[in-house]
Every structure is written in C-alpha cells, then in structure tokens.
C-alpha cells in the first residue's frame, strides 16, 4: 500500500512480527480500520517453528520434562516467580490466555497450540535435542515425541553435511532416554541430494529443490525406508511455502504419518510463519505499509511521521536522556491515528536500541532495565549462557492496560499501547516465553486499541 | 667517548637528515601508509568507511538475506555463498577483500534489493555491495 500526503487510520500498529500481526487482527475483528507499518521482517522470521508460551518450572537438564505441568500452570508459576515479567504485570488478565491462543490459532492459518490444560509438547530439533513448547507450526506439532508411535524413522540426506540421519537418530535416542521416553529412531538416509555441490546446500535451497520435484524426494525416502517404521520425522526443509502437499504425498506413498522437526539456523520455518501472518492480515483486511514511524517530538503521539524503510547509515551522535538534540531528518508524512500499538520488538528488530544509552527509537519512551536507566551492558550481561542476562530484559514498562509508563510511573498517552518483545521484564531468547508474550499481549493490546479508537471516533462524531 | 659520537650522529639524523628527506620526497602520511601496508591489503579507513562498517556491524548472521538473494543461483558456490557474506566476512577485514574480488565483480547489487528488504536489523546490503566493490578497487593488486 502506498502513502500519499497523510497516513490516516483508526488503529496504527507499528511492527510486523507476530505481536504486531495479532494486535492488528484483534483490532480488526472489533470492526475498526487498521494499518500496520513495518520496516522489514522482525525476529519472528527467525523462529524455530516452536511457539513457546512458558517453560515447565521444574525442568532441568537431567529431567527435561519437569513435572509435566499444564501450560496454564506454567504461565501462572512464571508470573508468580518473576514480578517484572509481562505475565505478572497482566496477572489479572491471565484467565484470558486460552482466548488469546484460540484467537491466534483461528485467524492465522498454520499455527497450532495445545489446550492450556495440557503440558508442553516435546519436539525434536535437527541437533538431536528436545524442545518443549506449547505450540508450533502445523507441520511440526504432530511430531510430539511424548505421544507418537515408538518406532520413528528419521530422514536425512546422504550427500549433505548437516542432515546426517545416522547421527540424528543416535542423538535423539539419547535425548529421549534422558527425558524418560522409550523411542527407537531408525535412520532413513535418502539419496535426494546427489549432485556434487549439494553437500553445501543451505536449508532454504534444499526446500526449493523439494518444491521443484516433490515426487523424486518421496521416491528417495521410499527407497531408504526400512521395515517396521511407524512414523517419519523430517528435517525442517520440506517446502519454502506450505509443506502440506509434500507431507500429503509422503503419507499417501508410504502409508505413514510424517512431520517436520523444529529448525535451528537459517530457519525455513521463520519466513513460512511470516507468510502465514501476511496471508492472515490480507484476509482480514489490514492495510500493510512498508516503512518506519518516528515521533518528531518525544512522547508525542500527535507528532508521528511516516518515512520509507530505506536503510540509513547509523547515527553518529550518541543518545543521552535530555542531552543531545535529534539529528535533522527529512520531514516525513504526517500520521493521524486514534490509537497506536507499539510492537517493534527488542534489540534485533530495533524496538530497543543502544547508542550511548538505551532508548526506544519510535517515541523515545523511557527504557527500563535493572539498575540505572541509562545503562551500559556492564555487569548486566554474563559470558555464561546459563546465568542471568538482565540486559536483554530491557524494554518499555507498561501498566495493567498495556499502556507505556514514563519515568514517574504515569501513563504516557491513553491512546498508546505496547506489546510483544518491546515490553520490559522478559528476555525473548532465554525465558522461553517469546511467542506466548507476543500472542497474549498482542491480542489484549489490539482489542484495547480498537476500543480506544472507537470511543474517540464516536466522541468526535457526537461533536465532543 | 664513542657514546658521545653515537648520540651526536643520532641527533644529526633526527634533526637534519629525516626532516630534509621528508621535505624532498614530498610524500604525506597517507602515501607512506599505502606504501607500507598496501601490499598486505590494509587501506586507510575514511569517515564513509566507518559509517558503512558500523552499518555492517548490525548483522546478526541470521542468514535470512541468503534465502532472498538473487545472486546466489548465478554464481559458483565456492566463489559466493550468499548475501550474508558481505557484512559478516568481507566488510570485516580489507585484507580478505582481494580474495573476494572475482565474486564482487560478478555481484549485481540490484539483485540484493529483496534480501535487504527482509533484513531484520536493517543492514543496507545494496549500499554495502557498492561500497565493497569500491573498497576492493582501492586495494593494490598483490
């Protein structure tokens, strides 16, 4: 969608990851006009395909399944244990968690969540480890190792460095034994990648190759298959688009249920999830615009401006609160919105940035992190991956209505809401709650923004 | 006594010979930097270079750009392994650039538009490709 003269909408969502998409869809469902502005793909496009909501509190490396508490109980436990976490901030709303997950599953094709009264699913990774998660893409969720048949064929490629069926089968057997699951993994090394240079193919290139010729791929798996296999587990490279066709072909030819594992590096599933989001936004009538939103004046929602998403060289000035003036930029297109949802992510997508001090680039909202507000990463990060990484929990503090707070704990603007990774108190990489926070806060923020926008519009109509 | 003559000689070198030599050769620091470090592939870093290097430093090596890189299918895998090479390897050290020269010559920056549009951290891949080609040209041939 192109922007001419002025960007006018009822609800403006800034950020195109899963939090922004859920917020936009939730607002749209309430009948308001919604525009989503995004610079590019966000951290959502890097997802493994597993949709984390909350980890089991009693899980340890020696006992990875923990107590197998229900997802709902895990969420409540986390909220009680971590008072700064968004789940704790929204404690009174936690009863609406199932509603939010159901909404995401219903509107975004390809997402699957377990019932909140069930425990996390146990999914395989290509590294031979297990990933516990409350949801996943539809091609992945069926491969829950705690529920599937005991004899599983793991498909690898003979002429490829990464997907070695023999090694994968051995590692998964060990991982399942540690988790107390009796499963036998049978290697299925197919000869689909036979060309000389295929050994270095990247995951998305294998996916493109399978898309080109699914019949040959199915044939190669059939030739490599041994007797007694009851189910197939495949690397997450089945298709760059929807893998339903290839999975269907496999099931039809081999009479076996099949599923993908979650992804590791260079995820094919991330862009696939982003595509599901785009399709849902289009289906529901949300206008998507490529660009950036910046406020000309700090904390002022009426001074928002839209600019193209052209990559710019980084700022040469360092940011300190109340110190340096903004660098002069070309005037952008003015934005008029009745309510705004900030879903700009954290450090990867640029929702929180650091150049001298931590700051929030869109509206210059105060960024909160344990310790001083103008924080360096000194003593807030650790080289040990298992240690607390407080710095990565930096973000925007909100009240129970998801409205950002200023340094004096006052609501910045009644029309402004924040959701997803930009919120303070959670580390999307380490807490295993990234998708749960995104979907839950996105759903609530979208609905509240729609309500605020509708109230303002009717107030204006009545001549107030 | 020999110490005295030694110090006198060094003083003469420092105060008379070196300044005269510098004046007569007429070369500045940049030329001498090129002369000394150029054959190793090290070239001075300008202000523009510094801005591009900082922009390249945003790369988190996620590899998402590789999946949308139009150049990948056109070039030999040994020569070029995707757009993420630009920020995560070639921008890091100018000493590596002579090895990338062949690939950079065949690279079509316009084909990186789509890869640039999906970069989650906003690395300017198209500008980076132009800059790397220019930087490679500035390095004297070995």
TL;DR?
The complex is a heterodimer of chains A (464) and B (142). By secondary structure, chain A is of the alpha/beta class.
CATH topology of the largest domain in chain B: Fumarate Reductase Iron-sulfur Protein, Chain B, domain 2
Number of strands of chain A: 20
Overall geometry of chain B: elongated
Kindly provide the name of the CATH class of the largest domain in chain A.
Alpha Beta
Helical element count of chain A?
A: 11
Helix count of chain B, per DSSP?
7
CA-based gyration radius of chain A? 23 Å
CATH superfamily of the largest domain in chain B: Alpha-helical ferredoxin
Oligomer: heterodimer
Give the DSSP E fraction of chain A (strand runs of 2 or more residues): 15-25%
Beta-strand fraction estimate of chain B: under 5%
Describe the sheet with the most strands of chain A.
Answer: 7 strands, mixed
Structural class by helix and strand composition of chain A: alpha/beta
Measure the end-to-end span of chain A.
32 Å
The assigned CATH architecture of the largest domain in chain A is 3-Layer(bba) Sandwich
Percent of residues in helices of chain B: 55-70%
Which characteristics define this entry?
heterodimer; A: alpha/beta; FAD/NAD(P)-binding domain; Rossmann fold; globular; B: 142 residues; mainly alpha; 7 helices; 56% helix
Provide a descriptive summary of the structure in words.
- The complex is a heterodimer of chains A (464) and B (142).
- Chain A has 464 residues and is of the alpha/beta class.
- Chain A folds into two domains: 7-48 and 280-461, FAD/NAD(P)-binding domain, CATH 3.50.50; 50-270, Rossmann fold, CATH 3.40.50.1860.
- Chain A has helices at 18-29, 71-81, 86-89, 97-107, 138-141, 165-178, 203-212, 214-224, 244-254, 269-284, 434-461; strands at residues 7-14, 34-38, 50-51, 111-113, 121-124, 130-133, 135-137, 151-157, 184-190, 231-234, 258-260, 287-290, 292-295, 304-307, 333-342, 353-355, 357-359, 367-368, 395-396, 416-418.
- In chain A, strands 1, 2, 12, 13, 14, 15 and 20 form a seven-stranded mixed sheet that branches. Chain A has a four-stranded parallel sheet with strand order 9-8-10-11, sandwiched between helices.
- In chain A, helix 1 runs parallel beside helix 11, helix 4 packs across helix 11 and helix 8 (214-224) crosses helix 9.
- The model of chain A has no long low-confidence stretch (mean pLDDT 90).
- With 142 residues, chain B is mainly alpha-helical.
- Chain B folds into two domains: 1-40, no CATH class; 44-142, Fumarate Reductase Iron-sulfur Protein, Chain B, domain 2 (Orthogonal Bundle), CATH 1.10.1060.10.
- Helix content of chain B is 56%, strand content 0%.
- Chain B contains seven helices and no strands.
- Chain B has helices spanning 2-25, 29-37, 47-56, 85-90, 97-106, 113-118, 125-138.
- Chain B is elongated.
- The model of chain B has no long low-confidence stretch (mean pLDDT 89).
